[in-house]
Amino acid sequence: MRVCLLTADPGHPLLAAVSDLLAPDHQVETLDPGAEGPGPDLSSLADVYLLKARTPRALALAALLEEHGAPVLNSAAATARCQDRVAMAAVARAAGLPFAGTRCVAALGELAAAGAPPGPLVIKSRFSRRHDLVARADSAVRLRELAADWAEEPVVVQDFVPNSGWDHKLWVVDGQLFAALRRSELAPDGRGPNLPLPTAELPASWTAAALQVGEVFGLDVYGVDILDAGVGDAGGAAGAPLIVDINAFPGIRGQAGAPEALAALALRIAASGRVTRADERKVTQVSQK
User: Distance between CA atoms of 155 and 5, rounded to whole angstroms?
Assistant: First the structure.
């Protein structure tokens, strides 16, 4: 089989491990969506493309490959749905997933100009990308500090939910679940390393929500960030899941069995020739502002 990695970073630990697994018996290629020069040879397509990129150029390239009959994992449309956090929240909540309440503000400067927030807020860039904005704001002073650097940034706003300070990182590869604990990126001391979290210890509702995300968003490889919404809330039950973010094709670093699961999935899709249906190919326009 010919397996092509759509990425600017083929040395990423997950992709490198998958390449090592496939290379003895299959041809592994790399196509950088951001590279200058002629595009791919559409007359000689790979058997499957792994989309480990999320820039507008990467999404456009993936959509082009799909239009010419190539299977792309995840599809361009599914990947795009995870880039716009407004669309992400709308899709998730419409499907009944326990996703955090999310509202959109056209520019962070507008939010700062409105004065003190009624309560602690989590501010995120509307469009998910590397080094995007994710911050907590409890006061007008903090909002003005953020606006000093991000005044024109389109953002989404979520009410801060009291929690343990740990993000539960759940990853799914072809229905197989992996998990870890990591300090919240809102924590004063930073995230720190991932800590082991046996999937057998997860509440059934968390597992069900994580697997439902794949069905709702059309994803085969993805990550789900979940908070325990019952912690610190006298009215909530411990273990109540609250989804705060969804990521298409995350790094899944240090998870035993994840490279093997991804390699097997790639070969299965390559062998089946699964392609995205025409009615699934509409790609949301994603800004990188």
Answer: 31
